[in-house]
Amino acid sequence: CDPNVTSDYNKAKQKLKARETLEANLVKDENSMDHYQEYINFELKEKDPTRIQIIFERATTVHCLESAIWSQYLTYLDSTLKISTVSLPVYERAIRNVPWSVEIWCDYIRSLERYEQPHTEVLSVFEQALAAGFGEPAAYLELWLCFIDYMRRRTIWSKDITESMSDLRTVFERANVHLGKCRGDPDFEVSKYCANLEADQFGVMENARKLWADITAAQPFKASVWMEYIQLEKTFGDKKHLRKAFQRALEKVYDDPELLVRSFIQFEREEGSLEAFEHCKKLCRIKMEKVGANKAKHDSKKSDEDQSRFDKIEKKKEKDKQYRRDKRQQTAADKKAVNGNTQEEKGTERFPMFRKPNVPEQAGDVPKKNIAPPPGFTGKKPVAPPPGFNENMKRTIAPPPGFKEPLPKKQ
Fold it and tell me: Could you give the angle at the alpha carbon of 77 between the alpha carbons of 73 and 78, nearest 5°?
């Protein structure tokens, strides 16, 4: 026999032996997802690409509606095999089976970019994803950010506005309109993204300020929002607009004014004149006084509410106690009244509540009934006395030994 054939046969037997238990588990539990995952983990450790693909294909065939198994399969293909002719067909099958998974749609778009597919194909997949009908508005935000990332990476930046730069702006506008309708971007992530690019790549700070004006108008009381805008002005703006941003923020913010005050004072220390620094300190002092007064008013109101709530509880407790006292007194009075009505008085003595019932006597003129004796009854039979019995004998008992008769008492 050919030794190569024998060696291959022995290796195949070893592989089969290692997988027999895993196959038996799948048969026993009717292709359980947990057992498939166990099998997949085993094959991933063995690092045989062919067998890994086979077990993934078996799992996705049985559990075709499980988005997690599709994501794991596609992640393996993109990170390990990295072959477009293998990965892209699997993506197409995945979105047919689990179109509600925004993660797979985003990975599909990035995969098309990775394998340098035509822009028209990427755009087509993105439009299909928008029409998939996700259940959560946040899914549309994730999809739009993924597509914007793709458009930004393919943008050719220049001092003059290029076609790709115009396309990117158009995508931002379309994203804001769509997300505004479905309320998928409550924190204005797309607008912040666009503002940063306008300030950095486009070099048009006025457009960035317009976007941030809309953001701060929608969220005027959050210190974190104002600090993001202030950071943008520090990086790409000028001192005039930065100082104005600090002053506007001081008028609006109430959730964390201390953070804003520290940042404003530090800015004036580093960049401002003596007059600007003193003016900053004055504004910050006025702001903190207002915040302290509002806080004291809030604490006082809360204390009054707590005291009112405590008084209501105590009043209810006292009312309950009084009700129980009245109830006990009423119960005792009712018992006393019942006892007084049921007892009979005789002088100052009262009989107890329980008395022996009176049995009515039979009328004297009612003759007693004579009951005939049973058959064979002959009347009372005399009983003979025992032998030696003397009826006339005095019935005495002999005293015990040593007994003496007592002396007669003196008169």
Answer: 115
